[in-house]
Amino acid sequence: MSAHLPFDESLSLRFEQIVGIQAKMLLAISGGVDSMVLCDFILAQKERLSLTLLICHVHHGIRGEEADRDAAFVRAYCEDQQLPYQIVYCDVPAYAFKHKLSIETAARKLRYDALTTIADAMGESVLIVTAHHQQDQVETIFDRFLRGTGSKGLRGMNLLRDVGKHRLYRPFLDVNKKEIMAYARQRGIDFQEDSSNTDLMYRRNRLRHETLPQLRAMYNENLDTTIVRMAEILRDEDEYLDQLTQQAIQTHFFLREDHAFCSIERFAALPYALQRRCIKLVLEYLDHREKVDFEHIEGVRFLIAHRSGTSFDVGGGLRAWREHDWLYIVSPTFVQRLNEAWEPMTLGKSSFFFLPQKKWEIRTDKQPFPRGQKHSLWEAWFSLPCDEELCLRPTQEGDRIEPLGMMGSKLLSDLFIDAKLPKHRRIHYPVITFNGKILWVPGFVRSRHQLVGEDGEQSVVHVSIIPIEES
Q1: Quick one: which of 147, 134, 302 has its CA closest to 228?
Q2: Within its chain, how far is the Cα of 290 from the centroid?
Q3: Does the predicted model carry a pTM greater than 0.70?
């Protein structure tokens, strides 16, 4: 970087290491001092690194003529510098009202939506660059602390993070505001003042202009450095704990598209910290929520120590319950799929189909019964009269089977209870029947009827079932 620029040389070196050569960059420019210094800083690297730049200014529809002035300022700057630009207009107040959000949250949401949309139009692997600096980092961490957060929240903003197929980059995150102002003065950079930045109606401004200055004056003049250092330590430790959590998830949880489950005995042996992190990750996976409440995490942990059948609402339509020695976290689509009724169907002697309610693949063929073959939980042979076919139907109340090797009959409900089959898996459980009699409960027991003779008859029907996923 040129010697006359006040930033440390290391900032330019790190920028080059992260950005590389011929990068596509989308710069978020508000017109304020931070973003205008960012733009000037990057323009100084543009030719040397062969950067492709696009400027984006988001008009939030909040500050009337002042916002119009900012948009006009950015437009004039880009045209003067011969930079391509886009100005996006949003109605933040209307969006905030509709979605019951604060103005600050709604503005942030619409701003990042706009940036992501423009980046998508630019192609793959775009760097979305914002001018967040050290003071922004301190305010973010402190605000999260006051609202209540875990170690991940206290890490603050990341220098780099993935945003869809792109990356968000904050090159000034370790630069303090005084350095930015010094750069602007030395370079004679023109910028706009945003009057809303001093409006104490906004929580962020109260932190910036009242709370943090008082803390610096009364307790620690190096408060910003202290908080940033703490965030760096937590970030390193949190990344390590993230690795342990991923390992624990892979070891203890069965993750499905619409539900997850694990062994309570094995899960309860994990340290509390990993239990909480695993639950949080599973909830985020199942409903893509941005924030998981502590009460929901503890509600799931509460189930570990309670009897079978206990359940808990974990928000977002998700529900957790304990069933015997298993912990389940399920989405509404999972419950809907299980409760979806299905009609009995005839099994041809050579067929293949998929039962979506149970996610079973079912295949029939005329494969002969192998000599010495033992009966399998998921494979069975049946001797049938010519032109007769098996039936696959869901269980009904009062169903009984006459098990092979036993006298009398047994209720399927008792069979399922003895096997500790979770209640949700008993609903509409498929059985194979012939002439009204249950011949086979796949995964459990074969009846003593329609057995293949010892001579290995050829006119038999072979049925195999492959459960695509355990639930």
Answers
A1: 134
A2: 8
A3: yes
